[in-house]
Amino acid sequence: MTSPESGVLHVAIVSAPIDVAALLSRAQAPGVGAVSLFLGTVRDLNDGRPVSGMEYEAYAPMAVSELRAIAEETCGRIAGLRLVVEHRVGTLAIGEASVAIIAAHAHRAQAMDAARDVIETLKQRVPIWKREHYLSGDREWIDPTKVRA
Asked: What is the CATH number that goes with domain 7-142?
C-alpha cells in the first residue's frame, strides 16, 4: 500500500459555520489509522460570567498566512501528518464551532500531538481576536494567550 499524501491539506478563515464532516473527509486517506479532531466551541460561562455569544475578528490575510505557517511547521516536525485547519470569524452563538483542527496520521500519538500543538500555537501567533458577549449586555475582548484552567 502506498502512503497517503501528507502535509497541509487545507487552511482557511471562514465566515460560515464550520462543516466538520467535510473537513474530516479531506483528512481521510488509506493508511490513516488515527484522526484527531479538536473543535473549539463557544461556551455559556467564562470566569463565572454567563456568556450569550462570541464575536471573532481577524486580519484575514495575515491570519491565513500565519495559520499556514503553523500547519507547515507542524507537518515538518511530524512526518506523514495530514492537517486541516479552519477558524471562523463573525458572531457565534453558544455551542457553535469557532475552530476546527483535524490531524490525521498512521498513529494516534502523532495525530493527537499535532492537534494540540496547532491550537496552542494558533492562540499565541494568529491575529484573531475574540470578544465575549455577556447576558448582562456587556462585551469584553478576551486575551487568547491567557491560559484558563
From this structure: 3.90.1170.40
